[in-house]
Amino acid sequence: MRNGDYLTRAEQQEYDREIYRRRRARKRRRRVRFLLICNLLLFLLLVGGGFYSDNLTYGTCYVEAGVEVKAQDFFKKYKPDAVFVGETPSFDIHTPGKYRVTVRNGIFIHRCTLYIQDTIAPQAAVEPIELGYGQYCRAEDFVKDIQDATTVSVVFDEAPDFGQWGEQNIVILLSDLGGNVTRMETKLFITPVLADLQWEVGAVPPTVDDFTLAGQDRKLLAADIDTSQPSRQPVSIEVDGVVYQSMLTIADTVPPVVEVKDVTGFVNTPVSAEAFLVSAQDTTPVTAAFAQEPDITVAGSREVALIFTDAGGNTATASAMLTLTEDTEPPVISGAKDIAYVMGTTVSYKSGVTVTDNSGAELPLNVDNSQVNLEAAGVYPVTYSAVDHAGNTASVTVNITVLSTTYDLNEVYGYADNVLASIITEGMSEYDKLRAIYSYVKTNVGYISHSEKGDWVRAAYEGLVKKQGDCYVYASTTKVLLDRAGITNMDIEKIPSKTEHYWNLVDIGEGWHHLDTTPRTDHPDIFYWTEAQLMEYSGQHRNSHNYDHEAYPEVP
User: How many CB atoms lie within 10 A of CB 508?
Assistant: First the structure.
């Protein structure tokens, strides 16, 4: 502004801008001074806090391996709230080494160095070992109860000579991760007797010389050694007054020697690998199998590969020719004949009836008795049929004549009820009822060598009233008592031969069992017998109870 003069508009605007710039400059200088002061204060705070923080912890810590390390251990003063930073500590107390560790207490985080060191040598106990000749062991087998904070390796200072029998001095070295080594001494004794001896099946049994390496006085302390079958047998051997144990392994290591033949058959008829085998020379049983199942759906000749395996798993291979032709010949049904049946008895449609086929295959025998009414007297057709693998069929039709009973069944029931009233008491189990019926028939019916067959009611009458009869009477008498006692039962008969025999099947809720009340000269107690029991007895007594298993339910 000039003295006495007014500023022009442009001058006034320039003046105002100058004033504005000066004010902004002053504000900028004040802001800079404020930030400088704040930064200085923050720097002083951080430096002072750092000095304070570093003064709270140990920068470096040393600890013996295996000792537990806590976050509080890094603070000069105990800090109950101190924790490691992270989910788990960054070190392993069982592994020596240098670790960077981060701990926190409150807002302060501290980084420290942890040295885990192992300065203590491992401790353990050693014991001597006795081995049979041919056995081996590890250094660890001599040592037990190892004590050390780190992993310990166990090695021989010098490996034993397992091929030399007698006593040897053994030095074991135990080394931990800290480099500490413990030296321990023990003994190894290797006996002059083989720990294991393998012998070929079927060979002449081994002698004491086969088991032992040395010794003046040697002998086997065992019964006769059986080499006929693969097995493992412990054997005791005495050498110079000391008894040692050996294990004898009877093994089959030689493959079978086989002879095969070509086979002819029919299309779609199964053929077994055994059909090709002529002979097999081996000390153990030999099984046959196809390397690949042959195609039996097409006529013609083809080569088949066979594998023969003995009990030792040794195999021999061979090949043969299989020739198949079309089969146009139907099966043959034999033994089918008319049947006479008395109402109230049992009937076995398949008894004595067989089916054969030119293929040699076993075929099922089908029986169509759908038109038969065993409750009404009359003559009814029964048709037997069979189909072979080629689809050829055969059938035979016979008649079954159903006859009325000649004795009053209700009258026989009355006699049976009187007997049951005298031998059955309240609260008896089904088994006890069965035993009471069995005992009654055995002790109250006398045996005679013959009776009329075909009418079980008559036979039961003779057993209950006349109290005598043969096996058919015994079985029929037992049947009516079982029926009236409510015990499920079924008649069963021996396959026809020079002699006949009848007995009963019973089921009291545990499956079918055999019951035979007929007395025999050797006085067997055939009461509630299993299939195995009866078949064993039958085999020892000229097939006394040989029956058609397909005609009756399975007996366990």
Answer: 17
User: Which residue is it, tokens 């005495």?
Assistant: 238
Q: Quick check: helix, strand or coil at residue 79?
A: coil
Evaluate whether 259 touches 320 at the Cβ level (below 8 Å). no
CA nearest to 376, candidates 406, 403, 407: 403
Long-range contacts, 529-533 (Cβ 8 Å, 24+): 530/555, 530/556, 531/555, 531/556
Distance from C-alpha of 196 to C-alpha of 251, rounded to nearest angstrom: 12
Maximum distance among all Cα pairs of the chain, rounded to whole angstroms: 174
Nearest to 454 by CA among 421, 500, 415: 500
Going by pLDDT thresholds of 50, 70 and 90, the confidence category of residue 465 is confident
372 Cβ contact list (under 8 Å, min separation 6): 380, 381, 382, 400, 402
The predicted-structure confidence for 219-243, as pLDDT tens digits, reads as follows 998 778 888 888 899 999 999 999 9
Q: How confident is the model at residue 46 (pLDDT cuts 50, 70, 90)?
A: low
Strand order in the sheet with 512-515: 488-493, 502-507, 512-515, 527-529
Q: What is the CA radius of gyration of the chain?
A: 50
Q: Are 374 and 405 in contact (CB under 8 A)?
A: no
Average pLDDT over residues 457-466: 90
State the Cα–Cα distance between residues 409 and 457, nearest whole angstrom.
6
CA angle 279, 284, 287 (to 5 degrees): 60
Q: Helices 430-444 & 409-423, crossing angle to 10 degrees?
A: 110
What tokens does 280 get?
Answer: 């097999």
Between CA 531 and CA 447 the distance in angstroms is: 25
The C-alpha atoms of residue 33 and residue 19 are separated, in whole angstroms, by: 22
CA atoms within 13 A on the CB side of 496: 6
Q: CB within 8 A of 19, min separation 6: which ones?
A: none
- Residue showing tokens 């006769």: 224
User: For residue 246, how many other CB atoms are within 10 A of its CB?
Assistant: 24
Indicate if the alpha-carbon torsion angle 31, 32, 33, 39 is positive or negative.
positive
CA dist., res. 553 & res. 426, Å (int): 31
74-77: long-range contacts, CB 8 A cutoff, minimum separation 24? 74/101, 74/103, 74/110, 74/112, 75/103, 75/105
**Contacts of the segment 42-49: beta carbons below 8 A, 24+ positions apart:** 49/108
**Bridge partner residues of 248 (DSSP):** 197, 233
C-alpha closest to that of 58 among 46, 49, 71: 71
The residue behind tokens 């019916």 is 445
Q: What is the pLDDT of residue 1?
A: 42
Q: Which residue has the higher pLDDT, 343 or 360?
A: 360
Helices (H) and strands (E) in the chain, counts: 7, 32
